[in-house]
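Blinded run. Sample ID left blank on purpose so nobody reads anything into the name before looking at the predicted structure. Input follows.
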Amino acid sequence: MKKLIRSALCFLGALTLLSSEVAAVSPDFSVSALCAVVINADTGNIVYEKSAFAQRAMASTTKIMTALLTIEAGDLDTKFTVDSYAIQVEGTSMGLSQGDIVTRRALLYGILLPSGNDAANAAAVSVSGSIGKFVELMNKKAKELGLTNTHFANPSGLDAEGHFTTAYDLAMLTKTALENPVFAEICRCADAQVEFGNPPYLRRLANSNKMLWQYEGCYGVKTGFTDNARRCLVSAAERRGVRLICVTLNAPDDWEDHRKMLDYGFEQVKRTEVVLPAPVTLPVIGGKLDKVPLALSDTVILPLSQDEIKSVSFEISTEPFLYSGFEAGKKTGSVEIYLDGEFIRKVDLITAEGVGREEETLNFFEKFLKFLRLFFFG
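Blinded prediction complete.
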């Protein structure tokens, strides 16, 4: 027996009703960015957006994809000599020179901290054999991730024809990248000691992302700037169990934009206890009670915005009835929880109390009639 239930939930702290209105952005709320978005890092849903689906140049936020593909290629700690041609590139650098011996892990720090274009190119050649082949890999990965408004022309983010993304696509790419523990660890480093050179020796690389030390809970992700793209920034932050990803493209005041947008996001997304929207009971045969209430076996808490709360649904599967003589906590079925139709979690249903056996005072016919009444009429 299955039931599909759609309903609002209850907040932790015993709130029993929720407004059906999504909290509106204050008329005074504005950002300098031409394109911007904040998403819930757990669900991928939009919390705030401004022209989030408009195609724009992305500058060095490109390197989120470059780093992710380098990590996925593996073999991060094998030493090799950098390609001399690849490191001859303009713009920001980790300081590679011809003949330097590096590892892919060292290049990852060079890609994500000082935003080295030399590191991005060297990693691309290491992974794919040439920059062109690596760009093909970047676009293949973008297609796999459903980034339909993104196209790459190089691994560094330098201005080029056909090199663009959207704030939303970039946020979703970042969501995927942060699920990789190596990426998540490196992008949150304010600085790092990295070994490379000929012979290799330790150098200190500093992160260009000031959000890491200017915003509480920030744990990444990537800065970017070119003459065409202007200032671009991707940040991620966590507070009280809520994780957000924020993106701005062409933002003259990007640091302030991100502070405002993340603050707004944390006001909207809260840790929310998922509870069944209505009592669920099962008929009991031969018991002192005719029915027993059911409950979730575990507490389920999700970070949800007011808008997301309205899109939660449940699919409940239970036994048709129970025979008496059971204690509280007996498993009787399960609940599948969905958000926007996407499966989130499955939780067992258990009896909220026990039901003892009824005194043997009813004859067979009376028990049969009672069974029919309970089963068909509840």
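Unblinding after everyone has recorded impressions. The chain has two domains: 2-14+274-377, 35-251.
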